[in-house]
Design a protein that fits this description.
By secondary structure, this protein is of the alpha+beta class. It has three domains: 196 residues, Aldehyde ferredoxin oxidoreductase, N-terminal domain (Aldehyde Ferredoxin Oxidoreductase,  A, domain 1, 4-Layer Sandwich); 169 residues, Aldehyde Ferredoxin Oxidoreductase Protein, subunit A, domain 2 (Orthogonal Bundle); 164 residues, Orthogonal Bundle (Aldehyde Ferredoxin Oxidoreductase Protein, subunit A, domain 3), CATH 1.10.599. It has a six-stranded mixed beta sheet, with helices on both faces. A four-stranded mixed beta sheet has the order 8-7-12-9, sandwiched between helices. A three-stranded antiparallel beta sheet has the order 13-14-15. Helix 2 crosses helix 20, helix 7 runs antiparallel to helix 21 and helix 18 packs across helix 20. It is globular and about 65 Å long. Bound molecules: iron/sulfur cluster (SF4). Iron/sulfur cluster binds next to loops.
């Protein structure tokens, strides 16, 4: 195979690997420059490819689904935070389109090997892993790896294949098709909506990659280096950088809790009473050395070393979202047990937010007499019981006993259990809710209700505008202005996910103008901030079309009833009615009153559907 295709634009290798796991054939497919102009790469390109490839009504676990590992044009360049990749598929959890992202060093190696992405189709008759070693691409038997954790898989392959390989792999969660199974590389995780489950169904254990080439930028020489330096300097000089570096996102816990925005006890409360036992101050002494994704001046990762039952335990630093799911939403303040649960989720390859929310749902069901002790395998599944985390996570990953129910995710689990348990299932479109309570941030409420992926806070991190004051000054409890804010942020987020930079750059001084500049720097295109919003609108609309084709329409642009009827811990007793913002949001999007994109808007965006 050729190292790369000749392209009008830099930042690309110009080709995807296409791996048919049923036949074992490996081919390559060129990228169309006109498509890249409209969709850039990453999430945008994934939406276009998967919309075209996956036919309506395809079962997520079938030969007709696809699993696309995709990079952006920035990967492999000197642009800060760009060492990231995405994985897209038709989600088994939501039934809609889902693209998740992870950092580390995997993406750069794929680009250096000469490929922009890898498209998997079909199903291998036995477990395999793919090795991409520059031009050499081969499938190998993964029989000896099946049943290993992500960490064990990575260690084994790095030892067997030699130095320089980066490994993306699944654990038992993916092998067993847990609805929210993840894909991991160096404990960076492509999470949320079950990409790992599709990978497991395909009998694909891992993708190992080593590349020795390089990636040219669109603006080269002195000007290119000056632009790169400016982006790095902007991030380095931002005051938030120090906070990310010191304590990661766990620094959000105290202020969000104080603002009655920290979901607790399965969203029954919005402040956690024992927050001082689990906050960043408690964790900080256990954080050891810093870790960074490729070319990132932040280095927000770190090793955490702590004592569990008297023994040393070492793991990756936990994120605010995982604390929300496994600690506050489960009513648990035993930090070492939460760290252990987080570590197990990563190693078994299941999503921490969905696992935590599934356990929290079971806790509320048990406490209300909807889940018997026998159905709970004799476990005392109640809020605050830290000792139940480990056995439940093991059962979920192996789909054993009550774990088989919780492995479905809260929407399907509550439909299976019935008995009125649906009202305790905290999800949007089947994706479990993240750790920002919508009753405290009305813009976030609208974002969670409307993103194609389901309850994904990262599709428009309105907390930056509604709470942190980074992007303006918004009343977090106001309905007015939120439709416009959410649309703009959802659209600008697309460019972050498509060039693929880190979402945290939103808080680190990178403006929409600078994202446009980064695209131009990587590719040599000449897009403006206005173009950023148009591209974002196009991708969000195409994702909407994918979902509508699957029967996911405006009836699913809503939050669980609890948020409109039950105040949390807020003394002013705010609740949120998302339906008050939806008509304006649809109108701004160029969608009709039923949330369907109008033919005129599709034509304006240049979408052929
Ligand atoms: S900010 Fe953190 S997660 Fe983002 S690219 Fe840098 S090290 Fe990776």
């Amino acid at each position: 195979m050729k190292r790369s295709m000749k392209m009008k634009y830099k930042g690309y290798k110009g080709q995807l690997l296409v791996v048919d796991l049923s036949s074992g054939t490996i081919t390559r497919r060129g990228l169309d420059e006109a498509i890249l102009e409209k969709y850039i790469g990453g999430r945008g390109l994934a939406a276009k490819i998967l919309y075209d490839e996956i036919k309506a009504g395809t079962d997520s676990y079938s030969q007709d689904n696809r699993l696309l590992f995709i990079t952006g044009p920035a990967a492999g360049t000197l642009i800060p935070t760009s060492g990231r990749y995405g994985v897209g598929t038709k989600s088994p959890l939501t039934g809609g389109l889902s693209v998740g992202f992870a950092g580390g060093h995997w993406a750069n190696n794929l680009k250096y090997a000469g490929h922009d992405g890898v498209l998997f189709q079909g199903k291998s008759s036995s477990p395999v892993y793919l090795v991409i070693d520059d031009d050499k691409v081969e499938l190998h038997s993964a029989g000896a790896l099946w049943g290993k954790t992500t960490q064990q898989t990575e260690d084994t392959l790095k030892k067997d294949l030699g130095s320089g390989f980066e490994i993306a792999s699944i654990g038992f969660g993916g092998e067993n098709q847990v609805g929210y199974a993840t894909i991991s590389n160096e404990q960076h995780v492509v999470g949320r909506a079950g990409q790992g489950a599709v990978m497991g169904w395909m009998n694909l254990k891992a993708v190992a990659v080593r590349g020795t080439g390089s990636v040219d930028m669109g603006i080269s020489g002195r000007q290119g280096l000056q632009d790169v330096f400016f982006l790095h300097k902007t991030i380095r000089e931002n005051e938030v950088r120090g906070l990310f570096r010191d304590v990661g996102t766990t620094g959000m816990l105290d202020p969000i809790n104080e603002a009655a925005g920290q979901p607790s006890f399965n969203f029954q409360k919005t402040s956690f009473p024992d927050v001082e036992k689990i906050n960043a101050n408690n964790m900080k002494p256990w954080f050891q050395r810093f870790e960074s994704c490729s070319g990132c001046p932040v280095a927000c990762g770190s090793i955490t070393k702590f004592k569990l039952d008297g023994a040393d335990f070492i793991t990756e630093r936990i994120e605010h979202q995982s604390v929300g799911a496994l600690a506050t939403n489960c009513g648990i303040s035993d930090l070492p047990r939460v760290f252990e649960a987080h570590d197990l989720c990563d190693k078994y390859g299941i999503d921490t937010i969905s696992a935590g929310l599934s356990i929290a749902w079971a806790m509320e069901c048990s406490e209300n007499g909807l889940l018997s002790s026998e159905e709970a395998d004799g476990l005392e599944i109640k809020f605050g019981n830290a000792l139940v985390l480990k056995p439940l996570i093991e059962k979920i990953a192996r789909k054993e006993g009550v774990g088989a129910l919780l492995a479905k995710g809260v929407r399907a689990a509550s439909q299976d259990l019935g008995r009125g348990s649906e009202k305790y299932a905290m999800h949007v479109k089947g994706l479990e809710m993240p750790g920002y309570d919508p009753r405290a941030f009305f813009g976030m409420a609208l974002n969670l209700a409307t993103t194609a992926r389901g309850a994904d806070h990262n599709k428009a991190f309105t907390i930056a505008a509604e709470f942190l004051g980074v992007l303006g000054d918004y009343d977090r409890f106001a309905y007015e202005g939120k439709a416009e804010l959410v649309k703009k942020m959802q659209d600008s987020t697309v460019i972050i996910d498509s060039i693929i930079m880190c979402m945290f750059t939103v808080d680190l001084g990178i403006s929409v103008d600078l994202y446009a500049r980064a695209v131009n720097l990587a590719t040599g295109m000449n897009i403006s901030a206005d173009d950023v919003y148009t591209i974002g609108d196009r991708v969000n609309t195409l994702e909407r079309l994918f979902n509508q084709r699957e029967g996911i329409g405006s009836d699913q642009d809503k939050l669980p009833e609890r948020f409109a009827t039950e105040p949390g811990s807020d003394p002013e007793k705010h609740v949120v009615d998302v339906s008050r913002m939806i008509p304006e949001y649809y109108n701004l999007r160029g969608w009709d009153k039923n949330g369907v994109p109008t033919p005129e808007h599709l034509e304006k965006l240049g979408i052929d559907a």
